[in-house]
């Protein structure tokens, strides 16, 4: 009876649980920590070893005896959704706020060319959620662990998410929680799955297979998947097909600075499109004898540009020219991904087992974006179009600033295609078995490696200037120090390039291709880990309610990172990217940890854990205490308190430049808004950010097959690692040392750095979950509701702390660690099953936020990103012998609700997605 009650209590232990949303809560949680058996392909029970629960190293206790709230989703629950990747599960976890990767998030500088997803529990940043596979760390491929690279979804036994600090158990990064993917290493037989997902303009398909076999002393499981996703462009959705103008260095057409009075070949005035540029120069030239004018064709219907006159000018020619490339940028890129996962065991003796795991991931992806980049790096002076260039209508030398290829691309192509090749290998080998008494050991070696090669095109400013001088073209004998033997400007194999809009479609394609050089960034990250954990009970030393369980462990971990750039990016002569510096860094971490579970009285368990980590430059010690008490058969109370930490990234080991980004910056001096390069400088003096984490929860079982859970949680950062906001830097000191300007006074590059905020983000909230299953005749219905409610989300900008609840948190000085903070995230569902039939309906709701993009924190605004509510439906039918075949049809966002509009980005990726309706059909078979 007592065990039955414990299992029922466990059903609600997860707080706001995706398991409670997607599957029967008791079933999902029992598989995680209570049920000592699994099922083979024939549905027969097979005995397995004790299950190690996520958030603990103790194998002698059950999940029900651990106080930390745990969300569990099993394979059965996965089949009730249309997910094709582990990352897709995040839409059903209301505690997750946004994600790195996937759809574009231009407001945060995200221009990911790959199909990647990160976890971001509580909105504390992807680096604050530790991702594990089978309880072991996986290398970060993009500064975060890509959930889609770990294992095929068909191989997932369950996904467990600890919604509590876990650094006392796992060490760094387990601040907001732990996301643990557990594979089905005991599967026997063969099963396969194929799914086609129709998204208008961006369909996707996936095939998967899994095979498992068992011998007298061995077991092997192999799974594989292949996924193909077609690209989706901003032009394909109304919410993203908006006007986002680029001007200044990003202008199209560009602008020109006259260095002398324009004149014709005969010495007369230059008149273009009715404008006399000679007399204009006489009237408006500055004291240096120069005058900046827009391209003569700016504002024409052919160029699709918009001219804005200068307040001090004549109303024409002098001002700014803007063009929106928004339609030519992507919502997501195209990708082709393959993933193989192998897991096996071999019994060395009757008691000692050798185990292994290997995962291989490969992805090719293509991001279709703007055909020509902004001219961010001009050097001492912008490129000069000499008077001798036959396409120069002014008859005098002029400086040029703009996009060298404009909007038409190479040879009329509308896009520049960025390509990325991602590879990842994860290998584990280890042994486990008894030591003495009931004490056991597990020794593990892990090697995890990732490589990303990102290929792009950028304008070589040396070749661009040479082409303006008449030495363009691949076959022109032009060298870095000038023209070679036989090279004559504009003759033979040497051509002039025109940057004027009138010549956009008639420029020699060979010249355009030559000035656009391929650039690449190659990033390799690797990690090696050696673990030894022993666990058991204290034998004769026991409490009245049961045995004292304990674990002690050691870990050695090496982390490495290597980033190398192509010559053009390193040289600083690329128009858009760079200058970049190659870097190699690594570090070694040594850890010791212990955990003890004490059954104080019947129904009450106290868990104590502590972990010490030595990074060489700093050391951390993180304790955790958690208590769970079941005073009667229908009530469970739990509480936990811990500290957690996140170490500075490896890249901060250097004081030099570590990354470049391109961000829309408003220059407070000139009043213009343009894409500018923001270069991050390392900070070797960074301290680890720490957090205090608390959780209080209760689970009540009011009637049979019903549960209600409530959890209050809070996170408080100290020394939070943040990156300076580029806009805040230029606002504070427009001409300071962190702002690099060219000779015309135009800001070219802004330098920012990471820093430890005085306090950091503080957030708290409530997780509420309820479920009730009941029968009506031959049918079974399950009702569920899951709510995550924010009570606090305070953000430290470095100079002040403000309340971020209900805000987009993208002001001019909001740190990059700030996330949108909707007050409510809710999921409501109803499931129906009868024999071979199953159907489900899920309503997902996210409350709206104030749209504070690009305004001061203290400013008020009526702009809002509205709330978003969508309905997901699914029906499945199983048939054949033992119901081994199943066909599933469904739709995500059935009513094709568009994402609510947001400033600049069109939509807010952490609130809604811009895909629209996603219809799918899936076929499953097992043998």
TrEMBL record:
Keywords in UniProt for this one?
Answer: Cell outer membrane, Membrane, Receptor, Signal, TonB box
SUPFAM superfamilies the record matches? Porins
| Residue stretches making up the TonB-dependent receptor plug domain | 63-178
Q: Which InterPro entries does this chain map to?
A: Beta-barrel_TonB, Beta-barrel_TonB_sf, Plug_dom, Plug_dom_sf, TAT_signal
Q: Does the keyword RNA-binding apply?
A: no
**Gene3D superfamilies registered for this protein in UniProt:** TonB-dependent receptor, beta-barrel domain (2.40.170.20), TonB-dependent receptor, plug domain (2.170.130.10)
Q: Where in or outside the cell? A: Cell outer membrane
**From the record, what ranges are coiled-coil?**
none
Principal location listed in the UniProt entry: membrane
Q: Which superkingdom does the taxonomy of this entry point to?
A: Bacteria
Q: Where is each TonB-dependent receptor-like beta-barrel domain found?
A: 413-894
User: For this UniProt entry, which residues form the secretion signal?
Assistant: 1-28
Kindly indicate whether the keyword Signal belongs to this entry.
Answer: yes
Give the family this protein belongs to, as stated in its UniProt record: Belongs to the TonB-dependent receptor family.
Please identify the protein, giving its name as recorded: TonB-dependent receptor
